Request: fold
Amino acid sequence: MNHNRINQALEGIDPEFIAESMAQPAADKKTARKPMRKLVVAAAAACLVLGLSVTAYALNISGIRDLLGRTTYELPSEADQYIVPHSQVIEGEYWTCRVTESLTAGNTIIVALNITCDEDYILNGCMDIPSAEEIAQGVGSFAYAEQQGRIPLFIGANINIGDVDLSGYASSLEEIVSDREMNILIQRDKLTIDPIHEIECLLDVRKIRLEDGAKVSDETDTTAFTILLSEAPVLGSAVYTAADGGTIPGLSFETVTINRTAVGNVVTLTAAVTDETEVGNIRMLRCGEMEEYFNFHSWTDDGRFFWQWTLAHIDASNCLTVSVYNDPEAPQIGEVVFSRG
Reply:
């Protein structure tokens, strides 16, 4: 504790009390200890102020495993050694974003952020904007902000990876710690398991002002910043080949590859397209006992088709049975058995 910090702490204490504590009375045995006692009280008060200051600005950061623990997704135990801590801080005009952790493995990128704001504002998730009916009824985040005399902010985050194809929009998990702090987990899939060494993160801060229930301003501040990544290695791999030609209407299956990674088992299924119209009817796949709607699918210029998705668990011994459906309640389009090569 240095001189400046003590002075700052003492600013919150009555000056007359400090002056009285520091006064030098006559050296009388009956009074000699009183100033010391008052000085000790003043010092204790200063320490209390400092302690309260530290507490007020303490961060409640939740990491990747903490945040995923609030969902049904089970992160493999191997993931812990590949979760990378970050200390990157991005300062906005009235908010601060801290990159806390990242995990990159297989076809998945996960980033954890901590967001705080100035005391004149209140943080909300990007999906928490009240409806017109809620605004008219005086409930929701706008009403709370108005009661507090503060401005609501709505925070959203996304990921770009240059020219690498991505699977739709990033999914995010929001944890509101207080009205001035929140944690965000961003997860995004890429159409490759090749290593990605950096990403661009986009943070949207939307500020909406209301007066008498009417919107008077609506501003969105988008800040882009780069996050460096460290790719976790593939922990194991197995390739399965289609038996008996592996043909169903529209597709001729080739292989199923299962890469065990720190985020789960990345399953990639490849096939040759024989009829694009028939392929358009495929909506669902069962692999062993796992039932999955497709995270994404695409066929390339050379007429090859692939699916890729991540499963926490898969029973992949010596063979896999893949069933393809248009609808889970309808009869299957076809079934192919794959043998481990």
In short: The chain is about 20% helix and 45% strand. The two ends are 66 Å apart (CA to CA). The mean pLDDT is 74.
